[in-house]
């Protein structure tokens, strides 16, 4: 499963994109379950961005979800953090 996260906004207004492929990872199965739960959750769907907050585009095998901080579920937050850690 390919998971890509693009983060925009924040105080500086920068953009950061990271991807990970779950197939060859020891934690791949857990990341896949987390991605499925994150995409099925309400979270910030339908809520507008918060001033100086981050906005996220999460893509999981072609499925797309737009999310805004601080309106994230726990699974959404964990998934975003795990993927963006790959960019560091």
Which word captures the global form?
globular
Average per-residue pLDDT, rounded, comes to 88
Compute the separation of the termini in Å: 21 Å
The counted number of beta strands is 4
The tally of structural domains comes to 1
Structure annotation, total helices: 2
Strand order of the largest sheet: 2-1-3-4
Secondary structural class: alpha+beta
Strand content: 25-35%
Q: List low-pLDDT spans.
A: none
Helix amount: 25-40%
Biggest beta sheet attributes: 4 strands, antiparallel
* Rg for CA atoms: 12 Å
Question: What's the topology here?
Answer:
Layout: E1 2-9, E2 14-21, H1 28-40, E3 54-60, E4 63-68, H2 74-84
Helix pairs in contact: 1-2
In short:
It is built from two helices and four strands, in the order ββαββα. The protein has helices at 28-40, 74-84; strands spanning 2-9, 14-21, 54-60, 63-68.
């Amino acid at each position: 499963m390919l998971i890509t996260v693009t983060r925009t906004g924040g105080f500086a207004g920068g953009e950061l994109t990271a991807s990970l492929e779950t197939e060859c990872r020891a934690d791949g199965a857990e990341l896949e379950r987390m991605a499925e739960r994150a995409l099925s959750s309400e979270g910030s769907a339908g809520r507008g961005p918060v001033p100086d907050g981050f906005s996220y585009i999460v893509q999981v095998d072609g499925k797309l979800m737009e999310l805004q901080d601080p309106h994230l579920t726990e699974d959404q937050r964990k998934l975003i953090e795990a993927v963006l850690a790959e960019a560091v």
